[in-house]
Write a structure and sequence with these properties.
Elements lengths: L2 E4 L2 H20 L24 E4 L18 H8 L15 E2 L12 E7 L4 H7 L5 E3 L6 E3 L2 E6 L5 E6 L13 H12 L13 E2 L2 E2 L1 E6 L2 E5 L7 H4 L7 H4 L3 H4 L14 H8 L13 E7 L3 E6 L5 E2 L11 E7 L4 H9 L5 E2 L9 H6 L1 H4 L1 E7 L2 E3 L2 E4 L6 H8 L1 H9 L3 H8 L5 E2 L14 H12 L6 H11 L20 E6 L3 H16 L4 E6 L1 H9 L5 E4 L2 E2 L22 H8 L13 H12 L5 H17 L5 E2 L1 E2 L2 E7 L2 E2 L24 E2 L2
Parallel strand pairs: 3-15, 4-16, 22-23, 22-24
Antiparallel strand pairs: 1-2, 5-6, 7-8, 8-12, 9-10, 11-12, 13-14, 14-16, 17-28, 18-28, 19-25, 20-24, 20-26, 21-27, 29-30
Helix pairs in contact: 13-16, 14-17, 15-21, 20-21
């Protein structure tokens, strides 16, 4: 069960004191190591957080509310209808619009939501506006509700599912949304080699690509080579799956060489697919549509007059007229904090990290007329050390595959020190298991596995680390105080870390000190995110200290525990790529290794229809991480996540898990029902 986080006064005072301690340690730190040369990019008791208290939240019903019979619209749209610039409301809504129950109360129309986004990527607002997949998590992420799909039917062995899109949904330009918009993505983007759209994970079963058949304009049949019972929830993760797969075919065809013979490539097509929030002319089916984008300055959205959801009283959503996003540089987090303190933000779900900012935000709640809500971050490692199992140096890879070497690295880390200095004591020292809130951990058996996994190799035992290194043959053979490789050659550990991820940079400094204390020479490669993620995708990192690692189970980002997907955040992306493409691309895991065993376990798990059997075997698969781990090395996790909300900005949940993008927060709590209380 997911939980709400509260920050007590005692915790707040402790946080303030530790901030001073962290600053002192920062001042005493040695100069940062030289940056490595960037490499080219090739394609039965709930565990308590260290400080916060947690309050259980009840599960939500899994059926949507009944539709109303009378509908109303925002004044700004009524004016457009009156002026003849917009069709009447009954011509813009589906026959059965999706009904959203407001969290606190029925809202009122109007207002502009002021917020901030770090950089031009619009990532967090995509997690607000574009979380409109086939199915949608309920607000506590305990089950799924219909969203784009109104209904669906599985056959007995889960090898085929018939899905029904909600009839009558329209794009923001008034054109109907039909299965043609999915098929354009599937056939003309994924299926066209000249476009270069990669086939997504979860679309192959037993090495065979799924088959998609059009039944009618609103019905699709998906067929698989074997049982695939998790297809719908797996393809409903965040905005990056089915939300992103629905493209306005009537608009996009002009940018496709197949339909526009004047084009020689699909560059414009892919640009609009990836950056659809930057093109005001591109139709959307989200609550707000983009109307202005100025790089590095501003992103403006306004209500979509064709949005297909209403409240129980028949009021077309969203309630809020506009969203005005100030774009700040990735290193300008202090500006975000100060805008919040000064009352210039209406609701901000991200960009207040590191946690040293929490005391200042709490101190100024009354002055800024806002409240700070402590959501649960949902992370299991900030940072987690991702290990290079496909690194170009085979001798390094030999060490990475040796569990004694990995265990030595883990035993040598003083996690409690990292927690106190980097996270103000508000996290939990642990290793890289899944989130404590993962569904499979909510039974006595599951809790036992979670506790054992998260605590495995996580104590600070430098002497144990030295002993294991000796067993591996990593010894100081020339008496220079640095350990060499088993063949006597120099050994240098290189940790990649993203320069704007200050928590991971600070933690990596401490890890460097811990490893060098046992004779392992360590260098930090602090670099831009595009360089670090590029090195990950091309197999160029030895170790990546990656922040905010968040996932759970078989639905939310499984490549965190098994290499089955080509994602930079995953265990060895190229090994995942090998699995994802059935051996056509990427790098295979070593035969008989823990990575191969994890892949084999995953292959079986996703075909199991019976939920209890699937969960039992999932817990057995996790034991590979305990018995042959750590596969990745965790440090601290289970952070709180401060959310700033103006006091008149209502219907915002006290509970959320914004870390795992696959859970879709804040989109999961239905931002379309947020409103300004007058």
């Amino acid at each position: 069960m997911l939980k709400q986080i509260k920050l007590s006064r005692r915790s707040f005072l402790k946080a303030t004191a530790i901030t001073v301690l962290g600053a002192a340690i920062q001042a005493c730190r040695p100069a940062a190591a030289p940056t490595a040369t960037p490499q080219p990019v090739v394609p039965t008791a709930t565990p308590k957080p260290a400080v916060p208290t947690a309050t259980p939240k009840p599960a939500e019903p899994t059926k949507p509310a009944a539709p109303p019979t009378k509908f109303n619209e925002a004044p700004m749209l009524a004016e457009l209808v009156k002026a003849g610039k917009l069709p009447p409301l009954d011509q813009r809504l589906p026959p059965s619009p999706l009904v959203i129950q407001p969290l606190e109360e029925i809202g009122t129309y109007g207002g502009t939501w002021r917020t901030v986004n770090e950089g031009d990527g619009s990532g967090w607002f995509r997690m607000t506006n574009w979380v409109e997949p086939f199915l949608r998590w309920n607000r506590t992420a305990t089950g799924h509700l219909p969203c784009l799909l109104e209904s669906w039917e599985w056959n007995k062995d889960a090898t085929e599912v018939v899905t029904h899109l909600r009839k009558g949904i329209k794009w923001s330009d008034g054109q109907p949304l039909t299965v043609a918009d999915f098929l354009f993505w599937w056939e003309d983007c994924v299926g066209d080699k000249n476009v270069g759209e990669s086939e997504p994970a979860g679309t192959r079963v037993k090495g065979e690509l799924m088959k998609v058949e059009k039944v009618d304009d609103y019905t699709l049949r998906f067929k698989f080579a074997g049982s695939h019972p998790l297809f719908l929830p797996y393809t409903s993760r965040g905005y990056t799956r089915s939300s992103w797969w629905i493209l306005p075919a009537h608009y996009m065809k002009q940018f496709h060489p197949k339909y526009n013979k004047a084009l020689t490539d699909a560059k414009a097509l892919l640009d609009r697919r990836d950056w659809r929030d930057r093109y005001p002319d591109m139709p959307v089916f989200t609550a707000w549509k983009p109307v202005e984008w100025t790089s590095g300055q501003r992103h403006l959205f306004e209500r979509n007059p064709y949005y297909w959801k209403v409240d129980p009283n028949g009021n077309q959503l969203p309630y809020i007229d506009k969203v005005d996003i100030t774009i700040v540089g990735g290193a300008a987090r202090e500006l975000t904090v100060m805008k919040g303190v000064n009352g210039e933000l209406d609701c901000q779900f991200r960009d207040f990290f590191p946690l040293k900012n929490v005391p200042l935000l709490k101190e100024n709640e009354k002055k800024g007329d806002y409240r700070i809500i402590m959501w649960r971050r949902g992370d299991f490692g900030w940072p987690a050390l991702l290990l290079g199992y496909d690194y170009p140096d085979s001798e390094i890879v030999d060490l990475m595959y040796d569990k004694r070497f990995r265990q030595a690295l883990s035993w040598a880390i003083n996690r409690n020190r990292i927690n106190d200095v980097v996270s103000l004591g508000m996290a939990k020292a642990r290793n890289a298991a899944m989130s404590a809130d993962s569904p499979e951990f909510q039974t006595p058996e599951g809790r036992k596995v979670y506790e054992e996994w998260s605590k495995s190799y996580a104590d600070y035992q430098p002497e144990t680390a030295k002993k294991l290194l000796g067993e591996v043959g990593v010894k100081d053979v020339n008496n220079d105080n640095w350990r060499e490789r088993p063949n006597g050659k120099p050994l240098e550990l290189i940790i990649d870390v993203i320069v704007t991820d200050q928590m991971s940079v600070d933690a990596s400094d401490l890890i460097k000190q811990d490893w060098e204390a046992i004779g392992l020479k360590t260098t930090l490669n602090v670099a831009d995110s595009t360089i670090v993620t590029g090195r990950a995708n091309s197999g160029q990192y030895m170790i990546w200290a990656r922040g905010s690692n968040c996932a759970w189970g078989l639905i939310s980002a499984p490549p965190h525990w098994t290499p089955i997907e080509y994602q930079s955040y995953a265990i060895s992306p190229r090994i995942g790529w090998y699995y994802q493409t059935a051996g056509k691309q990427g790098v295979p895991p070593r035969p008989g290794s823990m990575l191969e065993k994890l892949q084999q376990a995953y292959t079986e798990l996703v075909t199991i229809v019976d939920e209890k059997e699937r969960t039992d075997k999932l817990l057995k698969a996790y034991r590979i991480h305990i018995d042959e781990g750590p596969v990745n090395i965790g440090t601290i996790g289970e952070h709180v996540s401060p959310i700033l909300v103006k006091n008149n900005f209502r219907n915002v949940s006290d509970f959320g898990v914004p870390g795992p993008w696959d859970l879709g927060y804040p989109g999961t709590v239905a931002p379309e029902q947020f409103f300004f209380k007058k």
